[in-house]
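Ticket opened by: R.M.
Priority: normal
Category: complex prediction / small molecule

The reporter submitted a protein together with 2-acetamido-2-deoxy-beta-D-glucopyranose and asked that the result be attached to this ticket for the collaborator who will pick it up next week. Submitted input follows.
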Amino acid sequence: MRLYFAAGLFGLAVAEPSAPASTSRVLHEKRHSQPSRWIKQDRAQGILPMRIGLTQTNLDNAHNHLMDLSHPDSPNYGKHWTSQQVIDAFRPSDDTVQTVQQWLEDSGITGITHSDNKAWLAFHATVPQAESLLHTEYFEYEDVHTGGILPACEQYHVPQHIQNHIDYITPGIKLLSPEGVAPTPNHLTKRGNAEGEIGLHKTTKAAARTRGPHVRIPTRAPPANASDLSICDQIITPACIAALYNIPSTNLTHPLNPSNSLGIFESELQFWDQEDLNLFFSNFTPSQIPNNTHPTSLNINGGRAFTNYTNEGGVESMLDLEIAYPIVYPQNITVYNVDDIHYQTWPNNTYTWGFNTLLDAIDGSYCSFAAYNETGNLADWDPTYPDLSPFQGYNGTLQCGIFEPTNVISISYGGQEADVPVAYQKRQCLEFLKLGLQGVSFLFASGDAGVGNYPASQGGIDGETGCLGPKGDVFNPTWPNTCPYITNVGGTKVYPNHSVINEAQPESAANDPAAGGYSSGGGFSNIYPVPDYQAAAVATYFANFSPPFPYYCALAPDTNGTATGSGTPYDLLNITALQSGSQGKENNGTLGVYNRVGRGVPDVSANGDEIATFVKGKYVVSGGTSASTPIFAAVLNRINEERLSLGKGAVGFVNPVLYARPEVLNDVVNGTNMGCGHEGFSAVKGWDPVTGLGTPNYPKMLELFLSLP
Ligand SMILES: *[C@@H]1O[C@H](CO)[C@@H](O)[C@H](O)[C@H]1NC(C)=O
Ligand SMILES: *[C@@H]1O[C@H](CO)[C@@H](O)[C@H](O)[C@H]1NC(C)=O
Ligand SMILES: *[C@@H]1O[C@H](CO)[C@@H](O)[C@H](O)[C@H]1NC(C)=O
Ligand SMILES: *[C@@H]1O[C@H](CO)[C@@H](O)[C@H](O)[C@H]1NC(C)=O
Ligand SMILES: *[C@@H]1O[C@H](CO)[C@@H](O)[C@H](O)[C@H]1NC(C)=O
Ligand SMILES: *[C@@H]1O[C@H](CO)[C@@H](O)[C@H](O)[C@H]1NC(C)=O
Ligand SMILES: *[C@@H]1O[C@H](CO)[C@@H](O)[C@H](O)[C@H]1NC(C)=O
Ligand SMILES: *[C@@H]1O[C@H](CO)[C@@H](O)[C@H](O)[C@H]1NC(C)=O
Ligand SMILES: *[C@@H]1O[C@H](CO)[C@@H](O)[C@H](O)[C@H]1NC(C)=O
Ligand SMILES: *[C@@H]1O[C@H](CO)[C@@H](O)[C@H](O)[C@H]1NC(C)=O
Ligand SMILES: *[C@@H]1O[C@H](CO)[C@@H](O)[C@H](O)[C@H]1NC(C)=O
Ligand SMILES: CC(=O)N[C@H]1CO[C@H](CO)[C@@H](O)[C@@H]1O
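Result attached by the on-call engineer:
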């Protein structure tokens, strides 16, 4: 008897096939095309491990729940939920569970198990039993690259009264592995080469990439005196950052909370190495951080850190760690190394860089979380495990809920809204919401190409200009940044001849033509409306500083993951449709180039240019919102340390507090975020889509967050 997966999770209880129920059936799912990677073979035989994803409830209220515990004026501020409370709040209704269970029992199924996260019913069935239940035929499909066999059907049916209670059934129409080329084992030769890393992804469909590729050889040696603040307009050292944001040195003997390690995401072959850290510590924090201080690695689905490769650290990982350690030390840092090396090195990457597999690993319920007609990871977009690639494939099952999330997670990676299916983005955004309910702060780099993506000539995947629409002039906001449940960090810069000692605000929006046109990512979503916590700030911005270029007012329709346009398997943004929607009255008949009704980005900002780093044994200056993000994340982690020592909880989702009390940030009022040949938006008084509300003022932020329950 053939067992397609290891039985054991759920008891093996096989009943005799029973006569099909006489209720009327409706088509529930149908596969429209077959990936060429899979070859259809004989009829399936044996035992199938069946799982039924149940429709979840209360997602409409999820936003209100998060606001209720994140707004400073709410009596429930800081009352974060446990993961069990989140599961219970969104669990399928009793009616759903009973209705589906009754149907299964009436069809002769026994041994039905309800999963711990409540989202699934599971049982084992013989092939004839499953075929009779779902009015379908199961075949075996062989993966031509790995020889793996999966049972699947082309379509299946369920009784009409069941349809609204289930999302999908496995095995079903899905063939798991993404279509792609067989990997060759020489990809690792690119490891550790910054230029190579960027080049690797030029042909990508939707790949996110790191936000920190602007590395250059500095024009001067590291300052002889690590405390010297007179050089901060040329080189940003840890002392400059402390001076800019009034961050006091840490108390090295203060007891630390072991649950408060700062989380940092890495993928895309970004490994840290000890020797680079030691060079950095000995040059810039000699009396603070001893050599051999290093982060804890949490390796997800075969991710790893090749920490023993002396002087081979990645630009992104070294920047993230070197900028965050001086702020949080002696507190620890935890690096999430996400996805196996095969996926990290895949030349024709078609997946969206590990955010979903990170979320799966820190919240097991996300693995089966259904929303917008999608459940679990999306074939062709996310890595699939087991990955039977002989080249560094992780051959275990997808890791679900194996790690606790850290209180703060800093992510200096991302892509563009326009390149990722809308339903996929929305489901992922709800997961950020659910982790926010549990008190986790997600910080994302707002992007490094101003109002657009990089032009094709610099590796962008959105055409010649990096902007959208038939003329390539429509602004191109970043993903997942526009999700309203994360905190976006834009980039600032101390321009030459400004002083961190004598000026109240020495910083302007970062805009550095010498670094490939890097400028602080910002703009307005085409998918999400302005969230309530941001509405007043955005309205004030438009009232007082309306940008002098045309706009439109439209949001992408809710697609529920269903394919519409021809040829595209999942709905992407249709800019032409949005642009020809409601136009601004000041447009004089021209088509708009940005959306006036979308969620604005970034929320806050921090320094992101001319950052002193050691990478591959060399002293270099780096930049990007990649640097800004771990600075802001580290500041929140310091604040959490103080709150935890008073018996309070972590700050969690901070946007509602910061928008309600913007005076705890240093407003940035100078500079623009040019991109795709456009001058971009301007930094102005108050919130703006260039630097957000401003940079941290540590003592004020600390006082505010300590005053909250
Ligand atoms: C280093 O610079 C700081 C700040 O300017 C100053 O207080 C200190 O005396 C300097 N140390 C040395 C050894 O020059
Ligand atoms: C550092 O923390 C220790 C232990 O809590 C405390 O006794 C000491 O006063 C602190 N030092 C400073 C400078 O705050
Ligand atoms: C930091 O990590 C080290 C090494 O893993 C561990 O020994 C130490 O207890 C950790 N410190 C805290 C405060 O968790
Ligand atoms: C720390 O490591 C760096 C780099 O290897 C080295 O130059 C420095 O001398 C070391 N410092 C100490 C105190 O060992
Ligand atoms: C470095 O670590 C990797 C992975 O842990 C291992 O395969 C390799 O042999 C190590 N190399 C050296 C030089 O120790
Ligand atoms: C990657 O995709 C490009 C364009 O689709 C194709 O020309 C190239 O052969 C692919 N690379 C590999 C290694 O298959
Ligand atoms: C999975 O990987 C382990 C260790 O690399 C290996 O021993 C095992 O044979 C692999 N299993 C499969 C099914 O490839
Ligand atoms: C529309 O025309 C008016 C009057 O000529 C001008 O002031 C305004 O800037 C124009 N608006 C746009 C978006 O071009
Ligand atoms: C989900 O997508 C399938 C096709 O993939 C479609 O038949 C079905 O109607 C969609 N369900 C909803 C609720 O949109
Ligand atoms: C995008 O929208 C335009 C205008 O509504 C329409 O003509 C076009 O067919 C749409 N494209 C796709 C791929 O759906
Ligand atoms: C404003 O920003 C520009 C660069 O865009 C910079 O040269 C100038 O010094 C800044 N002015 C002030 C007052 O900060
Ligand atoms: C267009 C469409 O079908 N929208 C639906 C998507 O799914 C949500 C709930 O899952 C419905 O409320 C929408 O009506």
